[in-house]
Design brief:
This protein has 106 residues and is mainly α. The protein has five helices and no strands. The protein has one domain: Four Helix Bundle (Hemerythrin (Met), subunit A), CATH 1.20.120.310. The structure holds flavin-adenine dinucleotide.
């Protein structure tokens, strides 16, 4: 079975980075592809208990693919839900761009 921690770090890196560079005004095609990507995770993610937690979480909190900021915020909150469940500290969602897009201000 995959290393759930390493898989998780790699997946969060991919998802947060992709959200950070998602357009502020996505086309209908970009929106529908992002929705497909996110909806496929509960079906395909190769950690079955992670996938079923995510499925339940997405039912309560449908993805917001309307634009970069909304998507980044939605994803940050979903990641915080996982952090909370695992007893990890919550991440400050105001720092999402600094972490995943711009880097720290100098
Ligand atoms: P990670 O949680 O992997 O975070 C990587 C980096 O992201 C952090 O160092 C930090 O800089 C940044 N970060 C942290 N929180 C946020 C946030 N809210 N927003 C933006 N950036 C942030 N593991 C399980 O054991 N059980 C599960 O049920 C489970 N479900 C998962 C579901 C999904 C969809 C994914 C992608 C992963 C899941 N994992 C699960 C894995 C788990 O979330 C972690 O990836 C893993 O435990 C490694 O944690 P980490 O402390 O190295 O940092």
């Amino acid at each position: 079975p995959p290393d759930v921690e390493q898989l998780g770090r790699a997946t969060w890196t991919f998802l947060h980075t992709t959200a950070a560079y998602y357009p502020e005004r996505p086309t209908p095609i970009q929106r529908s592809n992002m929705l497909s990507l996110l909806r496929s995770l509960p079906i395909l993610y190769p950690c079955s208990w992670c996938a079923s937690h995510l499925e339940e979480n997405i039912k309560d909190h449908p993805p917001d693919v309307s634009g970069r900021l909304a998507l980044s915020r939605w994803l940050c909150e979903r990641h915080n839900d996982v952090n909370e469940r695992l007893g990890k500290p919550r991440f400050d969602c105001a720092k999402t761009d600094e972490r995943w897009k711009d880097g720290p201000a100098d």
